[in-house]
Amino acid sequence: TADFSTFGDEGFEQDTFDIVLGTWGQASQPDGDGDSTVMLWRMPKPLLNVMLNRDSVHGEEWPPGAEVTLTIDDPATGGSPDYTDIQTVTTEAPGYGYPWGYTWVDFDLDGVFDVEPGHTVVLTDGVTTKGHIVSNLAATTIDVDADVVSGTANPGADVYVMAGLFALAFRHQVADGGGNWTADFSTPGDEPDEEETFDIVPGDGSFLQHEEDADGDYTYGNWYVFNTLIMVLPINNWVLAFHWPSGAEVTLTID
In a 3-state reduction of DSSP, which class is residue 54? Predict the structure, then answer.
């Protein structure tokens, strides 16, 4: 047993440490010539996040095999909750990025329930309960020529905007009093992690995230610039169109 609440007996054990949710460390056992076996450990920190534009609720670091109940409440309706579901936590073996293993639970509500800003989303396994009020987060305009992404969030909220499939560039914006924000990737930002620029072209996209609430939960989403395409199959007399705006009226002309 290793007690980090008090000083140890040896000279190098004169520090204490407050272990909280999300803390990680390692235990090792060396042999006589310096080789050792190492085991990484982590104090799980169950999280809840909502992907607003995909109507998806995701949980991380919940106990392996636990049954997690999702409830969503719309304060504008009389009933509570307005939606509920139960899923079992999935476990992934230790690997890159998660050497202590990774657990998650997903609720894909696309076409099932429309998650909207202001909804209260709760996950619980009967031991831990996490709640989050969905924020008004969206990317509403992507200016390809100017390399600018604009959108909305709660007024005064911190918004983290990424560009590129692997978040090659990053911008931190604060929504104004009207809830509007703009992320300019054409020039470097003014914060240490905003040095990279990014040339946005059709087919590009990435993620945006609302600031975390008090216990680490958050709303996030993604943005994408459609690369509109047409495909002609003369043998079938077919013309196919891909990645055009949903609901748009598309006119075909053949000369």
Answer: helix
Q: Which residues are CB-contacts of 28 (< 8 A; sequence separation ≥ 6)?
A: 36, 37, 38, 39
Q: Which element (helix H / strand E) includes 59?
A: strand 56-60
Band of pLDDT at residue 251, cut at 50, 70 and 90: very high
Asked if residue 96 has pLDDT above 70, the reply is: no
pTM recorded for the entire structure = 0.78
Where are the domains positioned within the chain? 1-134, 138-224
Give SS3 for 53. helix
Angstrom distance (rounded) from CA 131 to CA 116: 15
pLDDT tens, residue by residue, 39-56: 777 788 899 999 999 999
Rounded Cα distance, 216 and 3, in Å: 27
Pairing of strands 138-143, 148-152: antiparallel
